[in-house]
Amino acid sequence: MFRYLSYSLLVLAVELGILFGISFYFEVHLLSTLFFGSVFFVFFAFLLGSSGDMLSKKQELAAFQATGGRYIPKYEKLTLTVGPLLVGSVLCFLAYFVFSYFIS
User: Fold this and answer.
1) Which residue positions in the chain have pLDDT lower than 50?
2) Structural domain boundaries in the chain
3) Phi, psi at residue 51, to the nearest 5°?
4) Nearest 5°: CA angle at 11, between 28 and 17?
5) Beta-carbon neighbour count of residue 22 at 10 Å?
6) Within its chain, how far is the Cα of 94 from the centroid?
7) Residue 23: what pLDDT?
8) Contact (CB, 8 A) for 30 and 100
9) Of the candidates 9, 12, 6, 7, which has an alpha carbon nearest to the alpha carbon of residue 20?
10) Which keywords has UniProt assigned to this entry (predicted)?
11) Can you give the pLDDT at residue 53?
């Protein structure tokens, strides 16, 4: 549990560092960068942690079509693995609300 929490906080620190760096380097509004960046990170973490969705089925279909085979769709249950990347990304999104409360 300690390792999971420490990895999640590490992901949070890295994502916040990236977003702060982007905001200061390009001289854009910090809250806008935090919002859109954290939404992107949550979406990316969701795609990495999910399976059985339409994205993986389209990859299967492309692989079968490339080899000339017949594609028979599998009916898989949608699963989401809640890992440190997803938890850290959601915490980064929640950090946006904390910053917007204190900055505004």
Assistant:
1) none
2) 1-103
3) -145, 160
4) 30
5) 15
6) 14
7) 96
8) no
9) 12
10) Membrane, Transmembrane, Transmembrane helix
11) 63
